[in-house]
Specification:
about 15% strand, elongated, disordered C terminus, 6-stranded antiparallel β-sheet, 12 helices, alpha+beta, 6 strands
Length: about 400
């Protein structure tokens, strides 16, 4: 790699990190604070909270990386243009590839890293976080909730325990679940226990009261009932893994007997194609940034700041990708739309970069006009001192 290329990749890399780390820290903090009730409500240690915060981080990184790449490239090239570095490189006869090659190598490396995090690290982190939250709520029921007091687990979910015995055995269970607007559920059970895995609350000898919005009430008695703690919904059995929790291998070849896949096959299709396109966004955004800010420009030229232009296009493309990926669940046609958006944007940017047009600076224009004027004067007839031609 040439000295100029090393210089450019170092400057872009530094600006990329300067943009990435603060934005990542802000988003991560907001996500972590939303789960602070895990400590305040369930009595977990600060170490458990720190572990949960660490597991949240991989879900944020792939979202922030493409925009940090846009900021790093556009801001660096704009600064180099303002310092006349791009002008000097053009005047010295440097090829445009001197700028494009190091930036695209960095963007491709970031894209590969995004693919690894999105498909390998993030699914495992989500599963581990879900299991941790399930264990926390299991501890909440078995060790933290005071006897004969109502305790709010989350909005619309309340629990009361009459008596707590050894071995996580609970007496006199009352659970009120009004989180689903379609119905209100009330559970009564003489006895219950949290299973050893901490994923479900097993209730025995009780009944479920179900009230619909139209006022109808149905009562079902049960000998045993399992209340899922990992998803905090009234689903039965153990925790159900969603499409976002699956690794790439499962999405490519899903198990047809998986209950969640059978219930929502479109969600797995949408998740697969989202992962196959999102990882390439850093490279696509890098091409867009190079088109906007990769040429030397005159300071007197009136134009929108390249960073604003690049971010606007990047946000628009990201929004279009997000919309198309969500529509895939209901309509497979949007699979074509999703790939066409990204491939089309990349091809248009490559076509614009491949053009050999260079921005002509005012000094160069002036020198060429002077040469033309001198040539014209040389061809004009000269007057003698006496006024004769």
């Amino acid at each position: 790699m040439k000295l100029l290329e090393i210089y450019i990749i170092r400057r872009v890399g530094q600006m990329f990190l300067v943009a990435l780390l603060p934005v990542l820290a802000i988003i991560w903090t907001t996500q972590v604070l939303q789960r602070i009730n895990l400590v305040t409500d369930s009595g977990q240690s600060i170490g458990s909270f720190a572990k949960l915060a660490t597991l949240i981080l991989p879900t944020i990184i792939p979202v922030v990386l493409p925009f940090a790449m846009v900021i790093g490239i556009a801001q660096t090239l704009t600064a180099m243009n303002n310092d006349s570095e791009l002008t000097v490189m053009e005047a010295a006869g440097a090829n445009r590839s001197v700028i494009i090659r190091p930036i695209m190598l960095l963007a491709l490396a970031v894209s590969v890293f995004s693919f690894f995090v999105d498909n390998m690290v993030e699914p495992r982190a989500k599963v581990a976080a879900r299991q941790m939250v399930a264990a926390a709520y299991a501890d909440l029921l078995s060790t933290v909730i005071e006897e004969k007091n109502f305790r709010r687990i989350e909005d619309g979910l309340y629990v009361q325990i009459s008596q707590r015995l050894s071995g996580r055995i609970l007496k006199g269970l009352f659970v009120a679940d009004s989180r689903d607007p379609a119905s209100d559920l009330i559970y009564y059970a003489k006895e219950g226990a949290v299973d050893p895995s901490g994923t479900s609350l097993l209730m025995k000898d009780g009944e479920v009261h179900r009230k619909t919005p139209d006022g109808n009430v149905s009562i079902v008695k049960f000998a045993s009932y399992s209340f899922d703690l990992s998803d905090m919904t009234a689903n039965k059995g153990q925790a159900t893994l969603r499409s976002s929790d699956r690794d790439l291998g499962f999405l490519l070849h899903p198990d047809p007997n998986d209950p969640d896949y059978r219930a929502k096959p479109g969600g797995y299709r949408a998740e697969l194609h989202r992962r196959l396109t999102d990882w390439a966004l850093p490279a696509v955004f890098a091409l867009i940034s190079l088109v906007i800010a990769g040429d030397a420009r005159s300071h007197r030229e009136a134009r929108l700041h390249p960073l604003v232009s690049a971010l606007t296009i990047a946000f628009a493309l990201r929004w279009a990708d997000f919309y198309a990926a969500n529509q895939i669940e209901n309509s497979p046609f949007y699979i074509f739309v999703l790939y066409a958006l990204n491939i089309g944007a990349a091809l248009i940017a490559i076509l614009l970069l491949s053009r050999s047009k260079r921005q002509m600076m005012p000094a160069t224009i002036g020198s060429r006009l002077s040469a033309v004027w001198v040539a014209i004067q040389g061809r004009m007839p000269k007057r003698s001192s006496g006024g004769e031609v």
